Structure formats: structure tokens, C-alpha cells
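Hi again,

Forgot to attach this to my earlier email, sorry! This is the prediction with flavin-adenine dinucleotide bound. I've pasted everything inline since the attachment limit keeps bouncing my files.
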Amino acid sequence: MAPLSPLTGGSAGTLSGPAAHALADAAPSVFWLDRADRPAPRTSLDADATADLVVVGGGYTGLWTALLAKEANPGRDVVLLEAGRIGWAASGRNGGFCSASLTHGESNGRERWPAEYEQLHQLGLANLDAIQATVQRHDIGCDFQRTGELTVATAPHQVDWLREDVGTGTFLDRDAMRAELDSPTYLAGVHTPDETAMVDPARLVWGLAEAAESLGVRIVERTKVTGLERDGAGMRVHTERGHDVRAARVALGTNAFPSLLRRTRLHTVPVYDYVLMTEPLSDQQLASIGWHTRAGVGDMANQFHYYRLTDDNRILWGGYDAIYHLGRRVRPTKDQRPQTFERLATHFFETFPQLEGLRFSHRWGGAIDTCTRFCAFYGSAHDGRVAYALGYTGLGVGASRFGAAVTLDLLDGADTERTRLQMVREKPLPFPPEPFAYAGIQLTRWALARADQNDGRRNAWLRTLDHLGLGFDS
Ligand SMILES: Cc1cc2nc3c(=O)[nH]c(=O)nc-3n(C[C@H](O)[C@H](O)[C@H](O)COP(=O)(O)OP(=O)(O)OC[C@H]3O[C@@H](n4cnc5c(N)ncnc54)[C@H](O)[C@@H]3O)c2cc1C
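C-alpha cells for the complex follow:
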């Protein structure tokens, strides 16, 4: 078998064999959210209100902001406004890799902030420790497992990259890698323990919401914020329901959705990422692949796959295609993309041919807030009354707690270790307006796919972007 085939494309639309069979009954819904213990909807805003702090967005960023605000100052009156349901968006539908990295990986962080990278690394580890401590303190049943992460090489040039980039991990040659997790496509791997935990993403969101409410945060669902306006010394937050909330401070955790601040509208684009979930593996099926550490796995291609086990031994399998639609729109219709599911299913069985016969139970997608520096940026507006953390670019499960802490520092006007960071003070370059954003992203995606097929060699377009510190990732 050609070891590169899973990473080099695969046609769509003519699917047959194990992948077609496996996809036949997959439900077009999010496994994590599609559960009997999903909390009942909370009430909507049905009257004008006041608060010390309004948080917009009920994903991890918003919930951490509300929770940390209350933990720091129990007397602060906090209201969280969510347009849909808590965690319905990225926070409830992601892969559940809760990484210590605040910089979308070490190489991105080291390249952009070489002088402060060690500090960022330590802050990231402390952030992950604090997430773990919160999960324990509030008894959040989100299957938090600090398994670490496995990075696998599936093409010869990636083996050299892995050797150079072992970091704090352990290099595994082909045999050692296959003894841990067995795929004929693996040429080597690195296991980095401790820096990543695997979580059940929706249960983490639901648990954070419950913890925030236990401290007195008022959470309001199905209440979309339509605008912000200065009001005396504070802000007036307008909602679709016609009611306003007046507050001294406003925190925005709106991720890939249209920003409520004109100044950040061009700084992110919504990029769609897709995922398959299998049915639970039998003991025999699991034994056929191994996976003793149960660590989350990612491969090294530009178009990378990520995959992990769930507590009931299903495999979540996602990534590869990162789809951008003209016009920066976030729409539920984009959560399903048959050609991507077919490609992912084909790659799954090329990676684990031992699992032929296994079926997928769920298929879904979701929007990632990609920015040109690949990790969150922070800022404030309206003379410090409004602050935000946006642009996690596909690695926000852990980093969102740090983003929330920075948002609160900015709203408090506090001078902290966090606000002194160059990473926090600098902003990424924006994407251009349409149709230039679309054209540039398509060209970059094409060039990245070509580089994967060409021993990782980057063409002139990618080298120019690298030189400018720009790029596209998921
Ligand atoms: C398929 C997929 C897989 C991923 N896998 C991983 C992974 O394994 N590890 C990782 O670290 N990251 C992963 N990510 C990214 C991660 O999920 C996000 O970075 C993270 O959830 C961002 O949290 P958030 O709270 O900022 O945004 P969201 O969870 O998107 O929450 C934003 C919320 O704001 C609300 N909102 C927006 N505008 C308004 C408004 N005007 N009024 C009221 N409410 C509003 C939305 O309704 C939404 O609920 C993945 C993302 C996707 C889509």
C-alpha cells in the first residue's frame, strides 16, 4: 500500500467499499450535543436589564469570562447573552483536544515571539493546570484525561521534521509508533505527554455553565445581541428581542460570528472543519490498533487529520479539508459537506484497514475563527468598556480560558503579566475584503496541498506569506 495515499487527496463522489458502507447510516448531527443529558434550554431575555458585566457568547470564551469574573469578584453582577444555546457552536462540536499551547503550536509561537516563547509556554501549562483544577473543583464530568498528544509522520520528509522538533516529547521510530498505535501509514511519531488533555467538549461547556450559575451568573439563551452603544459611563447592549441590557463593561466571546465591533470584522474568517464519529469499537477492534496511551493524534501535513478515542471507545476522526466560503458567512447549511465526509471516511480506512466493517454514527462540521497569525488576539474598544478575545484558529479549547483572563484584565484596566505580553499587545494583519480574501485563501489552500505532495516544499506564494508572517490554517 502507498503510505502517502491518505494524505494526498482522494476523489469524492464515487465512493464504494468500506468507506461507503461505513457512512451509509451516519446521522447528520453532532455526537457530543445529541445526547439525552443536554441541559434544558434556559430562558430568553424578556425585559430590559442592568448588570456590571455583560458577556456576549455562550461558548468557552464567554463562559470562562463569566466564571473568572465571579471567582475574582463575587459581588460583580454578571449576565451572559447567547444567541442560540450554550455550546451549540464550536465549543460543543470540536475534537476535544485541550492543549496547553496559547500559540497554535510551538513553531508558530517561537517564530512570532521568540523572546517571550518560554514565558508563553509556561503560561499555557499553568492555564491547562487551572482548567484541570476547575474541572475538579466544580466536579465537571467531562472525561478530562491528560493523555498528551501523538504526532505522527506519514511521509518521509515528515520524519526529519519530527526528529528536529521533538521538544519535550519522546521520539518513536516506526516500530515503536506502531506498537503504540498501529497504522501501516505511520513512519514515526512523537508522544508529548502532559501538554494536552482530552475532554468531552459539550460536557465541559455544560459544566462551565452550571459552575458559573452556581456562583450567581445569569445565563440567557436565544437572545442575539444586535449592537453596542455608549450610554453614559457604561454601555447599552441591544438585543434582537427588543430589550436592552445596560452594563458598565461588555466582554465579547463571539468567535467566528460577525463581530459587534467594526474594527475586528476583517481580522477573522470562518473556516469550516469537518468530523466523523464511529460507533464504539469492540475490545477486539481496539486491540487490533492498540492505542495504549489513548492520546489524541495529529499528523504533520498542512492538510492534517486529528483523531481521538471517546470514553466509550468510539473514534472521532476530523480535519484535512478546511473550507472557506465566499462572503465570510456562518450558516447551519454549511455544517454538512458530503464530499468531505467521503474523503475523511476513505482516509480513515486507509489509516486503519484493520477496522474494515466499522461504521460511522455521526457526521458534522463547524466554523473555526481563523486569523492570519493562527492564534487569538485581544483588544478593547469604547474607551476600555468593551474587550474581546478572537481568532483561536482551531486551537481554542484550552486557550479560551487564557483569552477570558486577558479580556477581564483589559476591562479592569489592569497591568498584569498577561497584558504586558507582546503577543497580547500586537494585532494580526486583517484579511482583505471580498473577493480578494476568497481568492487569496483558495490560492493558499491549493499551494498547501501541493506542498504536502511535494515533500513539504513551499512554493513562492507560501514563502512570500511566510516572509510577511501571514497564512491560512485551521
Ligand atoms: C469541528 C471543530 C473541531 C475543533 N477541534 C478543536 C480541538 O480539538 N481543540 C481545540 O483547541 N479547538 C478545536 N476547535 C476550535 C474550538 O472549538 C474553538 O476555538 C472554541 O470553541 C472557541 O470558543 P468560543 O467560545 O470563542 O466560540 P464559540 O464556541 O463559537 O462560541 C461563540 C458563541 O457566541 C455566540 N454569539 C455570536 N455572536 C453573538 C451575538 N451577536 N449575540 C449573542 N451571542 C452571539 C454564538 O452563538 C456562539 O455560541 C474546533 C472547532 C471546530 C469547529
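Residues 13 and 339 are 6 Å apart (CA to CA). The first strand starts at residue 49 and ends at 56.

That should be everything now.

G.
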